[in-house]
Amino acid sequence: MSKKYIMVVDDDPHIREVINFALEKADMNVQLAENGQQALELFEQNPTDLIVLDINMPEMDGLTCCRELRKVTEVPILFLSSRDDEIDRILGLEIGGDDYVTKPFSPRELVARINAILKRTQGQVTTESEDNTRLQHGLLKMDTEQHAIWWDETSVHLTATEFAILSQFLRQPTRVFSRDSIMSGAYEFNIHVSDRTIDSHIRHIRSKLAAVGCETVIETLHSVGYKLSSCQ
């Protein structure tokens, strides 16, 4: 397997050094940026497999950088923040982030989260047969090998985490999923995220599909969880 390229964007040189050491130890290639503007310039020159993106930075903050990146790419983004602020967390996920880690953090956990995102994005086909790479529910189609989704032949762009969540529903279209089961399927390495994080991902999936004409795709069962709607 070829080495993965990770971009680390943080205005704190010590944080960059710690993450760089942890990622290189995990056999990943790393490029570093001090702010969002520099990150955009570097990404244009050298596309990467995943971006670790601090939220609070000068020149251009992480949320603004994420919005600009999402205009041109679905590269996975893992946010870093010095504040354990749920508003920042939810906003980051709403605009296209895949995960969120609060400072101070464990470098080992950060690497685990990065590996989990990369596996969801690029590693699914190694354990699936060809038949299981193509999923369909009404007019909604998914190809896990191409990491692609269509609604009535219109392409829909989801982040790696959103893709992983929706694929769970398409593989078991009659199942009712609790938040815990969604979490277990989308996040590996025993990583815990809040119910609000799962709800935010579901809301984002719904919004993206509604924008192309699929008004209902995931139904909420109050006090139980979620299930796939008819979506015809």
From TrEMBL:
The keyword Metal-binding does not apply. Residues 132-230 bind DNA. GO terms for biological process: regulation of DNA-templated transcription. One of its GO terms (molecular function) is phosphorelay response regulator activity. Pfam families: Response_reg, Trans_reg_C. The keyword Transcription applies. PROSITE patterns: OMPR_PHOB, RESPONSE_REGULATORY. Keywords: DNA-binding, Phosphoprotein, Transcription, Transcription regulation, Two-component regulatory system. Residues 132-230 form the OmpR/PhoB-type domain. One of its GO terms (cellular component) is cytosol. The modification 4-aspartylphosphate is found at residue 54. Residues 5-118 form the Response regulatory domain. PANTHER family: REGULATOR OF RPOS, TRANSCRIPTIONAL REGULATORY PROTEIN BAER. This is Two-component system response regulator CreB.
